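fold-stage: in
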Amino acid sequence: MRLLFSFFIILLMNFNANSSEYEWYKIITTKEGNIFFVDKNSIKKEGDIVFFTKLHEYSGVNKFGEKSSIIHHKADCKKMRLKYLKDFYFKLSMGSGEPSFIGEEDSDWITIRDKSISSDLVKFVCNY
């Protein structure tokens, strides 16, 4: 069963990052104008571990000329920590168009600070 679940997650992460494939749910808008969404269809739980996909709509264009990103995450609900699994960065809003950069290296675990954007995202997916 674990092997099948792992295969499914890998298969899911290898699909195109086109935003139209997702069902985005807005989690938070910052006072700076950044908007964070979670794809409700991507939330997959295995015990205390949750896999999910996040869309970050930037308040403006960043120094790389990008307007948005779609990032696949792995979260540990019990230890309140997060990993980046695969990142897609876009020059257009809402993850539209072709990615300008794709990051495929898993990050180390990142401990989530209380009352942070990551905290809001992980609490949402862990309680979904």
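fold-stage: in (second)
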Amino acid sequence: MKQNAERKTQDAERNAQDAGRRTQDAFEPKIVAFLCNWCSYAGADLAGTSRKQYAPNIRIIKVPCTGRLDPIVLIKSFEMGADGILVSGCHPGDCHYRSGNYLARRRWMIFNEMLQFIGLEQDRVQFSWVSAAEGGKFVDVVNKITEDIKKLGPAKEYNAS
């Protein structure tokens, strides 16, 4: 009788592990991408018009400049169910607003520390530089962040207090 109970416990544990693996394999992340209007969005457009394939997990939000992106908007994205975030702008020195991408880069450094403080993995938010002529690079960036977020699994609630 004791062996039956142990066997049932082992079977239940094995089933729970299998179910966990299945949900991890079936997990498709929700990724929000904030793209600079002038460069990265145009790079995404080039990828689309060139019929390049990339992961469909990304939802694009066009912003005038990544330097104007408030970090609170990124946090709100997680609150609304995002598993990962991509922020992509002009290459340094090529910003249409002169220094917007430098400001974004400085904010990015501080935001990384804030992510750690609230209990989210830093790899859930990635920053890249993609120009209007780099449709192939945009595809690579999107596929990379999708794979990275799949490895991390669904985003957990963070410590808001």
